[in-house]
Amino acid sequence: MKILNLNCHRFRNPHAIWYLWRIIHDEGLDLVFLMETKKNVYELQCLKNENGLSNIFGVGCEGDENIRVKGLLLMWGDLVEVEVEVLSFSLHHIDMIL
Question: What's the pLDDT score for residue 67?
Fold first, then answer.
């Protein structure tokens, strides 16, 4: 299983997002965990099918449009025979069992 864990504090940059999707596709990643996405829940849901990983669990950011902090995103594909059970979550963590 290939896993990527990334602090993406500049995730709002379209070039960075494109490059991340390219890495996910080229490397055939199975599970991706992103921290500091600075995206709200709606924006995280919009990312669902843009990268080939069809399952998503996100914790939205804090703040308004100009100043955003935090944000977590967990993505995994259907081809992975993994059961994900989320036990708890907050702006600071996602506790889960794989």
Answer: 66
Residue 13's closest CA among 21, 1, 5?
A: 21
Read off the tokens for 72.
Answer: 């977590």
Q: What is the pTM of this model?
A: 0.75
What is d(CA 40, CA 37) in angstroms, rounded to the nearest whole number? 9
- Name the token pair of 48: 């669902």
Burial 69-82 (b: 16+ CB within 10 A, else e): ebbbbbbbbeebee
Q: Are 3 and 30 in contact (CB under 8 A)?
A: yes
Instruction: Determine the average pLDDT of the residues in 66-94.
Output: 77
Looking at the DSSP bridge assignments, the partners of residue 70 are none
68: exposed, middle or buried (C-beta count within 10 Å: 0-12, 13-18, 19+)?
A: middle
Q: What is the pLDDT of residue 53?
A: 74
